[in-house]
């Protein structure tokens, strides 16, 4: 199975993670997904007191320069670790 197919499968599987991921993991999933599908974040940061939007913006912006294929691979690995937490080292 090629990387893009594995990535799309992992996106679907992410909806069936048995326990709610931590906020950090949720931000990582969001940022890796955006980096893999769109590329670098070139949007203006949100203003005001929208802390959730700011956190999402900053998480994605932190991945600037990461290749989409690398972001896809990292997303797949993160979903796998969240689906199978007992297999972590």
How far apart, in Å, are the first and last alpha carbons? 25 Å
Low-pLDDT runs: none
Give the CATH architecture: Up-down Bundle
Radius of gyration: 14 Å
Count of beta strands: 0
Quaternary state reads single chain
What is the percent of helical residues? 55-70%
Enter the CATH topology name.
Acyl-CoA Binding Protein
User: What is the overall silhouette?
Assistant: globular
What summary fits the major beta sheet? none
Number of helices: 4
Please give the CATH class. Answer: Mainly Alpha
**Strand residues, percent:** under 5%
H/E element sequence: HHHH
Arithmetic mean of pLDDT: 94
Strand pairing plus helix content: what structural class? mainly alpha
How many structurally independent domains? 1
Offer a few descriptive terms.
mainly alpha
Descriptive notes:
By secondary structure, this protein is an all-alpha fold. The protein has a single domain (about 5-85), classed as Acyl-CoA Binding Protein (Up-down Bundle), CATH 1.20.80.10. About 60% of the residues lie in helices and about 0% in strands. The protein contains 4 helices and no strands. It has helices at about 5-15, 25-35, 50-60, 70-85. Helix 1 crosses helix 4 (about 70-85) and helix 2 crosses helix 3. The two termini are about 25 Å apart.
How are the SSEs ordered, and which strands pair?
Elements: H1 3-14, H2 23-37, H3 51-61, H4 68-83
Helix pairs in contact: 1-4, 2-3, 2-4
